Amino acid sequence: MSRITPSPVPADGPSRPRTLRRRLLSAVIGLALVGFAAGVQTLQAAPARAGTTQVDSAVIGWDGDKDAAIAHRDGSFDIRDGKNTTARFGIYNNPASLQWSNADGYYPALVTSFQRDNTTVTITNFGDKVTTGGNDYVAVYSRVTVDNHDTVAHTEDPAPSSGLIPLNDVGNTVQPGQSVSHDYVIAVDRFGASYPWPSDSSLAAAGSYDSHYAHMTNHWDGRLGEIAQLDLPDPRLVNAYKAGMIYGEIVKDGTALNVGENGYDQVWNHDLVGMLVNRFTQGDLSDAKSQLTRFDPHNSPVDYDDGHWTFPWPWAVYLQKTGDTAFVQSNFNRIQTEAHRIQTDRTGPGGVMKSTYDIDSDGYWTVDNAEALMGLTAYHYIATKLGKSSEANWAQRTYNALLSAVNTALTNTINTNHLSYIPCAVDAPNDGNACGQKNNANWAALFLFGRWNWDGYLFGAQQSGPMATMLDATYKDGFAKLSGLPPHTYGGYTGFSTGYNAGYGEAGLASADHRAEGVYDYQFMITNSQSAPFSWWEGIPTAGSTNWSPGTHATAGTGSSPHMWGQANASKVLLDSLVAEKSDGQVIVGRGLPTEWLRSGARTSATDVPIAGGHRMGATITSTGSAVTLRLSGDRPAGGVSFQVPGFAGNIASATAGTVNSAAGTVTLPAGTTSTTVTLTKAPAFQSSGGLDLNGYCKSIGNTGGVSLDGTTASDWHCVAPDGDHVSMSMDDACTYGYPYAASVFSRAADADDPQSWACWHF
């Protein structure tokens, strides 16, 4: 039986058996897209070369390269840097179904697998740095593996395109039950230099596929070791987080944080603000000084005002995490100049920020005022830390005046027009601008690009008025007005979704009812809108079924893919949902934890998280369903810890340590306390999503034999691989396959001895 009808199961048991902004106007990208997506920033993309404008676009390359190769699901990749050609393998036969993934879940080695002539063909491509003749290059190493699971021999020619240099000669005939691997190499980038390309012989002599694969994985694991480490109930989020960090290093040129490769291949001032903050929050401080020193907000393809207003923010985060007052002091004049521009730009009615074109037309946009408030908050923190009391006082006075002006304008607009949401413009309802357009995500611009609601709170901003009190109402109103879209997307520019989708959940961390929205939104992206493995276009007008399974994927895109500002926002909201540090030294743990992660046996961990003064800490949350335990590790935060999981609100019976506020849902641990167990008044009550289509799931991940029940217990389900082997499966992934719009859906067997008792559950 391949489809399981659910049986009742208690919410907290038994345990499941283990199985093995840029708001944009962009050039048109993808065959399915006609015209322009509604947005704000004009795309300054390099001319399309080879197939770089294909919807299914990823990057393979090396840390800090200049022109990474653009990879596609057919195993081909586009080479730039003057070559302007596409490397491909003719063995690809446009199958009805294929799988496309990162090797081992997150490495920048892209793996395409499909069936051909009763064989399984796998194409793997990755980049590695090669030094030959005294010059540095990026070489792409490719392996085409043919596994013959037939009873007769097959001759399968990889048919490599010209320029791919063979590294071995294994012949094209594959005997029954055997496999052969054909290895190739080609140089794709010169790190921005113009020296000659290496000879074929020198590349062939530079080492084997296996040796370079080992070098590649060692390098990226080392780089990943510099940032906070995550272990989550949804391992896809962990892999997306890792891949996002790696893609950012490939997309950057040297240490310059470009946004994309096949679009936005430059440094943009307001993007850079957010990307730097994410790096510092994760703990990637290796190039922080050079990146901050080089950051000139005027040096941007478009001189965005908000890139100036928020300029102090990454400096404040750097200062907080490192305590490096000397470096910040040496750059204070630059920070001061940009902060004081905020007062100069308060030329709007009643003293709000000036009119900009940030949301498709000139307007006095709420998001601009929030960004200016965020900049002032960060500047106040810096001035205070550096002992510049007069500047700190100026920042506070200017902040108070601007917040008062914004609150007055918004309150008047809301009351006059009887609005139940925070309008995009401080002086007008959404009906007359882009925020009122069908499925235009700009209605949520404040939630991400404003930064003030959550990040302002972390830096001690005094918050009042509609922007603070109407967050939940605005999330609710905006989601309700979307047309024909599933939960946990905000629309596009216009259309299905965006690469900022998870980031739009950031302000939810400051709300009462949408605190886990960022995590849910990130899971939505992974399940429903990838354009390549853990890559997303900035704008995603449409998504649907392709021959890449499982899941639905982008069928059109605008901007770039991957889009590193969007990726940075997703990584930051994910980490902040688990561990976030306030400027007073207190660390908030679990603020955005999905209630589904409180199920019995669930474990959530964030370790090596940077905190003030160059320290690192960890937090691990485990649950029995009715009791939730927090264990802290590493350095101890000076301000203690506030444990505040959404499922705690009004639901705490007791705690073994700390001060309990059940109404607020918080347990406050003083500095030095390392653990507490919170007993809930009532365990979460999960709802059944339904049964599982195990046969369909197995086939969607390339196991053409479907599903097999190989025993009498709940753990005896297996997928049947093309060669007939029975392999383990993830029941959680099977639930995601069956219920792609159910956020954090998970599996559970009501009876470990009953294989038919599996069901999918959500909160």
Q: Which labels suit this protein?
A:
19 helices, 763 residues, 37 strands, alpha+beta, 6-stranded antiparallel beta sheet, single chain
Describe this protein's structure.
This protein has 19 helices and 37 strands. With 763 residues, the chain is an alpha+beta fold. Helix 4 packs parallel to helix 17, helix 7 packs parallel to helix 10 and helix 10 packs antiparallel against helix 11. It is globular, with a radius of gyration of 26 Å. The two termini are 27 Å apart.
Reconstruct the topology from this structure:
Elements: E1 3-4, E2 24-25, E3 41-42, E4 58-60, E5 69-71, E6 77-79, E7 85-87, E8 98-102, E9 109-116, E10 119-132, E11 135-148, E12 154-155, E13 165-166, E14 173-174, E15 179-189, H1 200-204, H2 209-224, E16 229-231, H3 235-251, H4 269-282, H5 288-294, H6 305-309, H7 312-322, H8 325-330, H9 332-344, H10 366-385, H11 389-417, H12 445-449, H13 452-458, H14 466-469, H15 471-481, E17 497-498, H16 517-528, E18 539-540, E19 543-544, E20 553-554, H17 564-578, E21 579-581, E22 587-589, E23 603-611, E24 615-623, E25 627-634, E26 641-643, E27 652-655, E28 659-661, E29 666-669, E30 675-680, E31 687-690, E32 692-693, H18 694-700, E33 707-709, E34 717-720, E35 726-727, H19 731-738, E36 746-749, E37 758-762
Parallel strand pairs: 2-3, 22-26
Antiparallel strand pairs: 1-32, 4-5, 5-6, 6-7, 8-9, 9-10, 10-11, 11-15, 12-14, 13-15, 16-23, 17-18, 19-20, 21-22, 23-24, 24-25, 25-30, 26-29, 27-30, 28-29, 31-37, 33-34, 34-35, 36-37
Helix pairs in contact: 3-17, 4-7, 4-17, 7-10, 9-10, 10-11, 10-13
